[in-house]
From TrEMBL, chain A:
<dbReference type="InterPro" id="IPR007198">
    <property type="entry name" value="Ssl1-like"/>
</dbReference>
<dbReference type="InterPro" id="IPR002035">
    <property type="entry name" value="VWF_A"/>
</dbReference>
<dbReference type="Pfam" id="PF04056">
    <property type="entry name" value="Ssl1"/>
</dbReference>
<dbReference type="GO" id="GO:0005675">
    <property type="term" value="C:transcription factor TFIIH holo complex"/>
</dbReference>
<dbReference type="InterPro" id="IPR046349">
    <property type="entry name" value="C1-like_sf"/>
</dbReference>
<dbReference type="InterPro" id="IPR004595">
    <property type="entry name" value="TFIIH_C1-like_dom"/>
</dbReference>
<keyword id="KW-0805">Transcription regulation</keyword>
<keyword id="KW-0479">Metal-binding</keyword>
<dbReference type="GO" id="GO:0000439">
    <property type="term" value="C:transcription factor TFIIH core complex"/>
</dbReference>
TrEMBL record, chain B:
<dbReference type="GO" id="GO:0005675">
    <property type="term" value="C:transcription factor TFIIH holo complex"/>
</dbReference>
<keyword id="KW-0234">DNA repair</keyword>
<comment type="similarity">
    <text>Belongs to the TFB4 family.</text>
</comment>
<keyword id="KW-0805">Transcription regulation</keyword>
<keyword id="KW-0862">Zinc</keyword>
<comment type="subunit">
    <text>Part of a TFIID-containing RNA polymerase II pre-initiation complex that is composed of TBP and at least GTF2A1, GTF2A2, GTF2E1, GTF2E2, GTF2F1, GTF2H2, GTF2H3, GTF2H4, GTF2H5, GTF2B, TCEA1, ERCC2, ERCC3, TAF1, TAF2, TAF3, TAF4, TAF5, TAF6, TAF7, TAF8, TAF9, TAF10, TAF11, TAF12 and TAF13. Component of the 7-subunit TFIIH core complex composed of XPB/ERCC3, XPD/ERCC2, GTF2H1, GTF2H2, GTF2H3, GTF2H4 and GTF2H5, which is active in NER.</text>
</comment>
<keyword id="KW-0227">DNA damage</keyword>
<protein>
    <recommendedName>
        <fullName>General transcription factor IIH subunit 3</fullName>
    </recommendedName>
</protein>
<keyword id="KW-0804">Transcription</keyword>
Amino acid sequence: MNAIPICCFTRATPNAIIFHILQFLIELHLEVDSIKMDEEPERAKRWEGGYERTWEILKEDESGSLKATVEEILFQAKRKRVFESHGQVRLGMMRHLYVVIDTSRTMEDQDLKPNRLTSTLKLVEYFVEEYFDQNPISQVGIITTKNKRAEKLTDLAGNPKKHIDALKKAKDSTCGGEPSLYNSLSLAMQTLKHMPGHSSREVLIIFSSLTTCDPANIYELVKTLKALKIRVSVIGLSAEVRVCTVLTRETGGSYHVILDESHFRELLMFHVKPPPATSSSECSLIRMGFPQHTIASISDQDAKPSFSQAHLDSTSGGPGLSMGGYFCPQCQAKYTELPVECKVCGLTLVSAPHLARSFHHLFPLEAFQESPLLLHHTERFCEACQGELKDKSVFTCPSCNSVFCVECDLFIHDTLHCCPSCIHSRSAP
Amino acid sequence: MMMASEDEVSLLVIVVDVNPIWWGQQANREPQFTLSKCLDAVMVMGNSHLVMTRTNKLAIIASHCQESHFLYPCKLWKFGDGHGDENASTSGDGKYELLSVANDFIAEEIKNLMSRTEVKGNQTDTLLAGSLAKALCYIHRVAKELEAGQEMKSRILVVKAAEDCALQYMNFMNVIFAAQKQACDITGGLYLKIPQKIALAQYLLWVFLPDSDQRSQLVLPPPVHVDYRAACFCHRNLIEIGYVCSVCLSIFCNFSPICTTCETAFKIPLPQVVKSKKKKLKPST
């Protein structure tokens, strides 16, 4: 997407509301384009097509106010988030994802406040937290690239704290030089190619520069990535770059360019959900351990303080000795947190709630049916929150026919994943 | 100890299990502790919470066999204020009007609930997940309706009578994870099994009335050991090492070639066959 005509258009309009409306409408158009991308190899650029008269969608009512249209559009924006469920497609639950952050000279640009790097690091921190919330048995690693080189900020690990600490420290680092797509992809590939076949191998690149400096032919690397079944997705911060388009198309990933910070956040959240599993990923039984948590107190005779295996390598301060913890059932090595991969015997240690967190992906909640408020004159209150039904439409669960308001509908689909009225019946889901 | 500022709203939601079958059996077991005594203790707790700070809010949900019903606040009142009910009696003994109206209302509602609901079957287990889900939706709505500048802390207190229903496992876990996300940390709650039910009010006031900031200053009952081991899907035994299907995440104690839940065939790891290197024949000189 060429960002220049869009920027000129929006900077001319001072009204913040109109800006958001246009952003939403442009977004709609963007979505249509990305669907078309699958059909034809090259799509028409924006300046080649005719103009869209996006201002004609705004309609004034008799008094000249845009309030009704604005409310309608905001309401639609709220509803949009709920409709992206995959249905009965098999999802890849165990994911190994590398996030590549471009820290080249263009990241000092101030179009995202306070500058692109700080804004990106903050959003990636939020992404890491949400990622581990939705995919508790997956792993993430972070790579940065600048000065034509790539280096690993953190290794692939299942614990969010390490990544968040590293990201916080990286805020002070300087940006400079040019990024190197080839080097960062080959660095990610070196680790990902050894990952077992049943997990999904993904790379997410946040690319702000318009150039890349590669030591060899990147199209050869793209072929290797495709053979290794590594999916690469890119989020662009400046404009569309052809090499990224080819890279994502060949490996089966997605490519988007951001409009502003809230769009950036939405695109990152899009990558939090597990992607549909490719037909080539193998299904296997993974051997895992479920350690007991022992809480020993000093008064117990047999309790002895011991070091956690994870703390032996860490350089951060704090006492390593602790009384209780999780003991690996195979080799009795101690760890303070789960999930973790045992350093001594290689067994993956998780707890049952970690697996339970992923169940809502396997049994997704159906979308509720929207109907206008006027049809429901018998019910005045939302079943879940007991609030008065004030919005123009209400939502009905197809199985139990209970009525919910817009806010509860969003909450139920985003966070709860179960209908409060359906779970009152005794039948198992 | 920090005093709570005027801008901080603390919302307490009490979920009471009123399964009539269990309480009916309880009346035979221990006649001095009945449902009305239990609700008296809960009302004392609710009143104390409202009196602690002016900005505290309360909600009480009764968890019945097939539904959960909000005992307080009433749907017909405007949220927060207004006791505009014709039947509201001004209490003659000088009690704070909010409390007397609340107590009367709770008593009225629970009577209506118990008399109108038909009891089917004889299961004594309780369906808590639904009440917790409604409590979370209510908290979410109250959080959205706050005025600018106000912060809210919310907590849920569950008074459970009967045993858990095993069919509800997945719904229960979903609700717990949703609560964890709202609280922004592990739901660091307290579990207490009360040895003497008659003293319920004392336990409620001692252990559960202070909020989470103040609990660090008190000596509370020790935490109960929770067994986080998983149960295998084939025998329901608790296992320490198991095999997890990568597609549907079901847990098995032994290796099997097909997953019984999602019926995918697994790749059996065979030992690697090492290709023998061809030895180059040296040309004999």
